[in-house]
Specification:
about 70 residues; about 75% helix
């Protein structure tokens, strides 16, 4: 449910709400590459490139076929 709330917060963009929900979703499912990718993408949209890079790299480690995270 937290990941759904995070997606809902993106339209219109509420990056802080999205960040809260993706963080909660990742705490519940730390091995989920999609949630990790989306959390990294949210940090990227907020301008935090360092956190974004770390999370996107983790998303690739979790699912090497995750083409979106690899680029």
């Amino acid at each position: 449910r937290a990941a759904e709330l995070a997606q809902d917060a993106l339209d219109p963009p509420d990056h802080h709400a999205s960040l809260r929900h993706y963080t909660a979703a990742r705490a519940l499912r730390p091995g989920n590459a999609v949630v990790t990718y989306n959390l990294g993408a949210t940090y990227n949209r907020m301008g935090d490139r360092d956190k974004s890079f770390v999370l996107l790299a983790q998303a690739v480690e979790l699912d090497p076929r995750n083409i979106r995270a690899a680029h």
